[in-house]
Specification:
Layout lengths: L1 H10 L22 H8 L10 E8 L2 E7 L10 H4 L9 E4 L10 E4 L2 E2 L8 E4 L1 E4 L2 E5 L11
Parallel strand pairs: 1-5
Antiparallel strand pairs: 1-2, 3-4, 3-6, 7-8
């Protein structure tokens, strides 16, 4: 995908516009999202350092591979604060959302989860990261008592 994008970039006209003719619009090789079109219009090349492949939870008990990148993923929302890179160790809980077919349910995952992981669920991570440092955690306000 990265090679095809860069090939299209090198073959583009001086305006840097995508055209519907020719091999550039080939949906089997690349999906032209709004972010990717914007990068293309700015003539920004992609490199393999711009993305990584990570394991994600598509549905309960179904893992998949995700190409993880702020440049290539259309809407990443808070994911970079929860999983800043492919080496981050974090765990969170997905709670079923409003109108869930199966009623209330909760599942834990140590991978990025899909929005539909469990019926429009909301994900509550154990830790938030800011520039690779823990900023806040799920239990940051917890008072710990010890027996002794």
């Amino acid at each position: 995908m990265c090679d095809f994008y860069n090939l299209c970039l090198s073959n583009s006209s001086n305006t840097g516009q995508l055209k519907n003719d020719g091999p550039r619009i080939d949906r089997t090789k690349i999906s032209w999202t709004n972010n990717l079109k914007l990068l293309f219009s700015k003539k920004t090349p992609l490199s393999q350092d711009d993305y990584s492949f990570v394991v994600c939870q598509y549905r309960p008990f179904t893992k998949s591979i995700l190409c993880y990148s702020r440049k290539l993923n259309e809407r990443v929302y808070q994911q970079p604060k929860i999983y800043p890179n492919d080496k981050t160790d974090n765990i969170g809980f997905s709670v079923s959302g409003v109108g869930a077919r199966s009623g209330f349910s909760i599942l834990a995952s140590n991978n990025i989860t899909d929005l539909q992981f469990i019926d429009n669920g909301q994900f509550f991570p154990l830790k938030y990261f800011n520039e690779e440092k823990i900023v806040d955690s799920l239990f940051s306000g917890l008072i710990v008592e010890t027996c002794g």
